[in-house]
Amino acid sequence: MAALPSIALALLALAGGNAAMALSSASPSSFMPAGPTGTSYPSGFDMKKSWGNLSPYDDADHFGVDKGFPTECELSQVHVLHRHAQRYPTTWETDGGGMEAFAYKVGNYSKKNPDKKIGSGPLTFLNGWEYMLGEQTLLPTGAATEATSGALFWSEYGRLLYRAGKGEAIYDPSMNTFPNGTSRPKPSFRTTSYPRILESARWWLSGFFGNVGANSSYSSYDLVIIPEEDNFNNTLSSTSTCTNGSLAGDVSVEKFAPIVTKNALNRLKEFLPSDFNLTTLDIVSMMNMCPYEYATLGRSSFCALFTEQEWKDFEYITDLTFYGNNGFGAASGRAQGIGYVQELAARLQSRLINSSDSSINYTYDDNTKDFPLHQPMYMDMSHDDIIVSVLTALGMQYFNYGPHGLPDSVPHAIPHNFDLKKITPFGARLFSEIWTCPKDAKLDNLQEMMYKNPDLSSDSNTTDYIRFVLNNAPVSTMGMEACTGAVNGFCPLKDFVKSVPKLSEEAMYQEACFGDYNITTQVGNGQPIQS
């Protein structure tokens, strides 16, 4: 989760004991915990699916178009943009920083009042609680998520792309050939240098290549490691250079969070000493503790403290953050993601990149060692905010709430398509599928399973399509001018490639990332233009 500006932190901290006194609250005797982690609410609600970008991976149900495969078409290529998986929290105040501050607050109170129990009722566990989380590190659960993702990609896509035959369970270098039978170069993939991203890439590739006998699969591939550091161009970490116009989500959260946490604050403060001064930021931090302890320890006592509605509102807090910081509500939303879109187009055109007007680092993209061409598949390991900004740069209006951004002055979460648990859970993945189809192919007749990949390489009477698939659900191309008339998300490839220069213009990279403008609230279309 992104950081809140200092004014937001101050407001969240102040919205504690005194500010909440006038609000109605439940007495200790009337408190009913919401229920343990899982589908244990009477409604069947599963809180794990309301943790936003902290949710465990799950396939998305849909993004406006049907799932399935066009079995008469050839799957020619797949480009994977992948998020790292479960990790320790970041140091942002509304993430790990806030949790550490809450832990210090609890410990400091106990130290100053050794004869007092700090918690009672549902908060009794605080009397023996210890903050066990570190910072930023990929967790074993995250490694498992990545390895599983790589293995599933091999099973669902790799077997088709490399034409694995009967009984061929895992990838073999002999499969890596061009249609004419000549050998391709060793496959190469990309990651940033940030430890959790690099480790996620290694685990994903271990799953994809099989890693027989649990030995290292490093020899099966090359890995380009692009530095992730301030002021260094990197399309997989574009906010390192494009820091402008990416705080509107935080401003929205400072409005929304005090509204939706007030009941929990009043309910839970009854089980703490009267002079503890529980704040809105504490409540958000306690809610954050649930998914992080779940990922680290397998369970958390914090999870049962909150109601179904409070978890839905918690997810909306994460949605507001990313929508306003990296999505259509961010003045630099399109700019943050356009570099990857430009690289995708270059790969599709089999060309190197020798100049940059975005986050592209052409030192890496002007040679086939670091920016290989003609591979059946590509995998780039990155962050959640990059996936969000790429969807924005593509102009996928399915995720755009409207001209004034995602509402933040509402009493509770409202229906919306920008749903982080479906967009960027831990281990999220965006596939850009390339399909070669007969001219008369029926793209509205999709099948659930594709057992064999047709070879249409010698057929000239074909059309190439691109389809974007997010967490195993095809994404609607609504709003993408190049894809007008697309059936089930299949967009003519040549039209998409031709549209990228216009998408680059619409991203307004130089102005959005480095312009002197004063936009602090959400915009309507991911550009530095106030509605």
Describe the protein in words.
Keywords: Hydrolase, Signal. Pfam families: His_Phos_2. By secondary structure, the protein is an alpha/beta fold. The protein folds into two domains: 6-56 and 89-135 and 247-324, no CATH class; 74-88 and 138-164 and 184-244 and 330-401 and 420-514, 3-Layer(aba) Sandwich (Rossmann fold). Helices cover 34% and strands 9% of the residues. It has helices spanning 6-14, 17-20, 96-112, 140-161, 195-209, 248-268, 280-297, 308-326, 333-348, 362-365, 384-393, 420-423, 493-507, 509-514, and strands at residues 74-83, 188-192, 222-226, 377-382, 429-438, 462-470, 473-474, 491-492. Strands 1, 2, 3, 4, 5, 6, 7 and 8 form an eight-stranded mixed sheet that branches. Helix 4 crosses helix 5, helix 9 packs across helix 11 and helix 9 (333-348) packs antiparallel against helix 13. The chain starts with 5 loop residues before the first helix and ends in a 17-residue tail after the last helix.
